[in-house]
C-alpha cells in the first residue's frame, strides 16, 4: 500500500515540477519580450498588441522579432495580410502599429554597415559627381566634377535655368553643395582660379579644401524603381493627397522612399516647384506630393531628373510605400491604369514636358493612356 502511494505522490510532484518549469520559462520569455519591446521604443499597449500578433502568427520565440530581421518581416507580412483582409474597428490602431514596425525595420537597415565611410576633403569627391554652385548675388547653378587631381578640382562651367547675365568666373568666391549617394550631403567653399577646357568641356578650375561640412545623413531607405506615373503641378495644398481622375504629365518614377522620390520627366524642371506624383502600388493608385529640391537636366535628351522631398504622408500611404521598400507587400503591382503609350515611354516628349506645363494647366496637356 505504501509503495503505490509513494509512486503516485512522486508522479504528481514530477508533473507539477514540469508544469512549474514550463510556466516559469514562459513567464521569463514574456518578460524578455516586454523588455526588448520597450527598448525598441514600443509602448506597453503596443507590446500587448504585438504579443497577440506573435501568438497568432505562431512565432516560436516571441522576442525574436526584436533581433531577427527575418522574424520581424514575417510578423510585418502577417499584419499586412490581416489589414488587407479585415477592415475592422482597430484598423487605424493596427496601421499605427505597422508604421512603428516599419520604423524599427528601417532603423535596423540604417544601422547596418554600408562599407562606405564619409569623406573629409574635396580630393575625395568622385568624378561625375553632380554639384550645385551658389554665387552670392547671382543665384544657384548646376555643375559636375570633370576631373579631380591632387592640385585642383575641375568642374564643368556652371549653368542656370534663369538668365544671370554675363560675368567672369575668374576669382569668384563660390559655395558648392552635393549629395553623395548612400552617404550624406556636403557643402564647402572655394575660389575659381582658372577657366579652361577639360575633356572637351568648358570648365572651371577651383581650389581644393580640407574642410567639407557634412550637412545631412540619409534618413530613409530608398529603392530603385522603373514605374510609369503621372505628374501634376500644385498651386495649393487642398488637393495634395487627393487622387486625380484625369491623366497628368507622363513621367517615370526612378526611386522612392517614405521621405521622397526621384522622377524623370521631359522638359526643363525647376527647383522649389510644388508637385504631386501619382502611381500604382499594391494594385491601387498612390499619391505622393512634395517639393522639388534638386534638378539634374540632361540637355541632350531634354529631360529632367527631379528629386522630390515628400510632404508628411498619411500613415496608410507611408505603410504602402515602406511595404514596397522592404518587400513586405502581399500583392504584385498592376500599373495598367498608369501604363504609358509607347511613344510617351520612349521619348517623354519635350512639347508635353514641364516646359509646356509651366505655360498652362497640366491636365490640358495630359495624353491618353491605354
CATH 2nd-level architecture of the largest domain? Beta Barrel
Tally of separate domains? 3
User: Which fold name is given in CATH as the topology of the largest domain?
Assistant: Thrombin, subunit H
How many strand units?
Answer: 13
Could you describe the 3D structure shown?
The chain has 370 residues and is α+β, with helices and mostly antiparallel strands. The protein has three domains: 2-110, no CATH class; 125-217, Roll (Pnp Oxidase, Chain A), CATH 2.30.110; 223-364, predicted glycosyltransferase like domains (Thrombin, subunit H), CATH 2.40.10.220. The protein is 30% helix and 31% strand. It contains seven helices and 13 strands. A six-stranded antiparallel barrel has the order 1-2-3-6-5-4. A six-stranded antiparallel beta barrel has the order 8-9-10-13-12-11. The protein is elongated. The N and C termini lie far apart (90 Å).
Key traits:
6-stranded antiparallel beta barrel; 370 residues; Pnp Oxidase, Chain A; 3 domains; alpha+beta; 6-stranded antiparallel β-barrel; Thrombin, subunit H; 7 helices; disordered C terminus; 31% strand; elongated; 13 strands; single chain
Give the helices and strands, then pairings.
Elements: H1 2-39, H2 44-56, H3 69-85, H4 91-110, E1 130-135, E2 139-148, E3 152-156, E4 173-180, E5 184-198, E6 201-207, E7 213-217, E8 223-233, E9 249-257, E10 260-266, E11 274-281, E12 284-298, E13 303-310, H5 315-326, H6 342-347, H7 354-357
Antiparallel strand pairs: 1-2, 1-4, 2-3, 3-6, 4-5, 5-6, 5-7, 8-9, 8-11, 9-10, 10-13, 11-12, 12-13
Helix pairs in contact: 3-4, 4-5
Amino acid at each position: 500500500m505504501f509503495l503505490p502511494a509513494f509512486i503516485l505522490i512522486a508522479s504528481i510532484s514530477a508533473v507539477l515540477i514540469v508544469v512549474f518549469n514550463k510556466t516559469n520559462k514562459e513567464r521569463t520569455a514574456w518578460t524578455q519580450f516586454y523588455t526588448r519591446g520597450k527598448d525598441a521604443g514600443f509602448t506597453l499597449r503596443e507590446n500587448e498588441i504585438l504579443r497577440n500578433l506573435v501568438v497568432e502568427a505562431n512565432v516560436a520565440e516571441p522576442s525574436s522579432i526584436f533581433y531577427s530581421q527575418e522574424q520581424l518581416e514575417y510578423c510585418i507580412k502577417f499584419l499586412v495580410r490581416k489589414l488587407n483582409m479585415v477592415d475592422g474597428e482597430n484598423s487605424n490602431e493596427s496601421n499605427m502599429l505597422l508604421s512603428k514596425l516599419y520604423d524599427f525595420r528601417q532603423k535596423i537597415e540604417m544601422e547596418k554597415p554600408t562599407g562606405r565611410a564619409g569623406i573629409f576633403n574635396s580630393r575625395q569627391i568622385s568624378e561625375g559627381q553632380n554639384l550645385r554652385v551658389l554665387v552670392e548675388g547671382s543665384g544657384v547653378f548646376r555643375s559636375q566634377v570633370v576631373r579631380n587631381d591632387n592640385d585642383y578640382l575641375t568642374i564643368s562651367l556652371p549653368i542656370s535655368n534663369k538668365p544671370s547675365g554675363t560675368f567672369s568666373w575668374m576669382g569668384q568666391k563660390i559655395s558648392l553643395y552635393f549629395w553623395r549617394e548612400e552617404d550624406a550631403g556636403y557643402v564647402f567653399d572655394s575660389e575659381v582660379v582658372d577657366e579652361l577646357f577639360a575633356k572637351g568641356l568648358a570648365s572651371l578650375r577651383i581650389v581644393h579644401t580640407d574642410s567639407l561640412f557634412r550637412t545631412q545623413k540619409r534618413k530613409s531607405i530608398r529603392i530603385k524603381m522603373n514605374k510609369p506615373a503621372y505628374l501634376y503641378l500644385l498651386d495649393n495644398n487642398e488637393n495634395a493627397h487627393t487622387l486625380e481622375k484625369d491623366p497628368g504629365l507622363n513621367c517615370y518614377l526612378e526611386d522612392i522612399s517614405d521621405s521622397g522620390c526621384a522622377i524623370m520627366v521631359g522638359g526643363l524642371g525647376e527647383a522649389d516647384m510644388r508637385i504631386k506624383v501619382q502611381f500604382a502600388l499594391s494594385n491601387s493608385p498612390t499619391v505622393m506630393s512634395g517639393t522639388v529640391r534638386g534638378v539634374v537636366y540632361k540637355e541632350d535628351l531634354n529631360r529632367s531628373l527631379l528629386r522630390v522631398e515628400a510632404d508628411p504622408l498619411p500613415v496608410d500611404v507611408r505603410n504602402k510605400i515602406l511595404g514596397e521598400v522592404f518587400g513586405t507587400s502581399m500583392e504584385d503591382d498592376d500599373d495598367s491604369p498608369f501604363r504609358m503609350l509607347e511613344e510617351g515611354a520612349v521619348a517623354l516628349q519635350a512639347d508635353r514636358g514641364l516646359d509646356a506645363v509651366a505655360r498652362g494647366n497640366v491636365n490640358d496637356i495630359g495624353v491618353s493612356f491605354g
